[in-house]
Design goal:
5-stranded parallel sheet, threonine biosynthesis, alpha/beta, Rossmann fold, binds pyridoxal-5'-phosphate, binds ligand LJ64HWYM
Length: about 475
């Protein structure tokens, strides 16, 4: 394993050097992986990225072939986490985390067409791709907090899936309390119930009168109140937390190698909201995975494809779709890409993020070209989504969920006339969206037997105004109610 530092010494000499992390806004201290893991957002409001990019040599990538998912995960995460956690500890965590998945391959590939594949990321406990990272994150955080004899309060925002995955991964934890904010009435019943039916005292789901973007802004406001964040040891599990991205990089390598990488290239289409999952694909490419095309797939909330076409990132109001987890406008992780595309110009990032906050838009300027060169982009209308689900079922017998259908539509629109295999990331199981699937296909996909009581178990959740003071009060109360004994 080596690191991409141009110019620089040979990669093997670099390989023992721990990776440190810098903020995209350039005004926060550099941190270790463990600090980044526990802090989430940087104190200057920016996002952490590695100071140097690790590179995995082709022969190591080739050797991933046939290896258990957990072993590849330990290697990939180890590239970023070496300073904080040993590869043996990572391997033990990965074996434990991925042992909970319902498929031996963890993230199997299914062929749906001559040269198109679906990468099923939904075999974890909450039937969405978030489990792949969240199950590792919970173990990494517990390991780090135990080492420091500390507790933390996690506050997260969800458009449907992150919340359930976080609550499932951290429920019952003695070191962590979790408060998840979700947009009232804008998640599916199954998604909401995955958050509101667990009875563990350390997990709380809160409906916010607003959109996902409002929930995410509330979380960032809590992080930006430095006195508040320090008083409760605030941590984050959204993809603003770098460890989330890192843990998602693994399945790009696993899928790529299964289809012939590093000896041949592959392409991915990624259903996109917060830009986390596709950023993980971009990281895999930087680390050496030969990815020909990386396609941003949106639903009718098409701010990223519009920015791709016009060079202007402009908010227009969120519309509700059958793929609610992608009903997002402020794609947090886009900031990480812009930081790299601008040549790590923290001043540029402060400028564009300030403009977005104040005026709801910014011009990509010099970043428009690298954005177009690095990614393709496509948006699916609601009619496109229904059509993709119906014809895929008719053609191959395979049932896509509405998020995955956006991915397929975007892949089809941007596919080159090349023989490179196209992989659509399947980010959720169709059973998470029974109403939408019934409208499209005429029947409701069944939930797995282990979730049979989900739709009848009692729910508990307060509804709060989109108001930072009210949310702070709720979070402080949840933190106060935490058990004594750990500082
Ligand atoms: C099912 C599903 N698909 C796609 C996405 C978009 O992923 P990202 O926010 O990482 O872009 C999400 C939410 O994040 C999701 O829950
Ligand atoms: N689609 C997500 C939104 C939050 O994204 P994250 O990856 O930053 O946690 C969800 O389902 O909650």
């Amino acid at each position: 394993m080596g690191e991409d530092r141009r110019p620089g010494p040979p990669f093997f000499q670099e390989s023992l050097r721990p990776v440190t992390y810098i903020s995209t806004r350039g005004e926060a201290a550099s941190l270790t992986f463990e600090d980044v893991l526990l802090r989430g957002l940087a104190r200057d409001g920016g996002l952490y990225v590695p100071e140097v990019w690790p590179v995995i040599p082709p022969e190591t990538i080739a050797a991933f072939a046939g290896k258990p998912f957990a072993e590849v995960a330990a290697h990939v995460i180890g590239c970023f986490a070496r300073s904080s956690v040993s590869e043996d500890a990572l391997l033990a965590m990965a074996r434990d985390a991925y042992g909970r998945f319902g498929h031996p391959a963890v993230t199997p590939l299914v062929q749906i067409d001559r040269n198109r594949w679906v990468l099923e990321l939904f075999h974890g406990p909450t039937l969405a791709f978030k489990d792949v990272a969240m199950q590792m994150l919970a173990r990494l955080m517990d390991h780090a907090l135990a080492g420091r004899n500390q507790r933390a309060v996690i506050v997260g925002a969800t458009s449907g899936d992150t919340g359930g995955a976080a609550i499932e991964a951290f429920r019952g934890s003695e070191r962590v309390d979790v408060v998840i904010l979700f947009p009232e009435g804008r998640v599916s019943d199954v998604q909401r119930r995955m958050m509101t039916t667990p009875t563990d005292a350390n997990v709380h789901a809160v409906a916010i009168e607003g959109t996902f973007d409002d929930c995410q802004a509330l979380v960032k406001a809590l992080f930006n109140d430095l006195a508040f964040r320090d008083s409760i040891n605030l941590a984050g599990v959204n993809s603003i937390n770098w460890a989330r991205i890192v843990a998602q990089v693994t399945y790009y390598f696993v899928a790529g190698v299964a289809l012939g990488a590093p000896h041949r290239a592959v392409s991915f289409a990624v259903p996109t909201g917060n830009f986390g999952d596709i950023l993980a694909g971009w990281v895999a490419k930087r680390m050496g995975l030969p990815i020909e095309r990386l396609t941003i797939a949106s639903n009718e909330n098409d701010i990223l494809p519009r920015a791709h076409a016009t060079g202007v990132y402009e908010m227009q109001g969120v519309v509700e779709t059958t793929s609610p987890s992608m009903d997002i406008q402020i794609s947090s992780n886009f900031e990480r890409f812009l930081f790299e595309a601008s040549g790590r110009d923290a001043g540029y990032i402060r400028g564009v993020m300030g403009a977005l906050q104040q005026g709801g838009r910014f011009e990509l300027g010099p970043c428009a070209v690298p954005f177009r060169e690095t990614f393709d982009a496509g948006a699916a209308s609601e009619a496109d989504v229904a059509d993709a689900i119906r014809r895929t079922k008719a053609g191959s017998g395979y049932l896509l969920d509405p998020h995955t259908a956006c991915g397929l539509v975007a892949l089809e629109r941007t596919e080159a006339q090349s023989e490179v295999p196209g992989i659509v990331l399947s980010t959720a199981h169709p059973a998470k969206f029974p109403d939408a699937m019934e409208r499209i296909m005429g029947e409701r996909p069944g939930l797995p037997q282990r979730l049979s009581s989900l739709l009848t178990d009692p729910e508990r959740f307060p509804v709060l105004a989109n108001d930072v003071v009210e949310v702070k009060r709720f979070v402080a109360e949840a933190a106060r109610a935490a058990p004594e004994g750990v500082s």
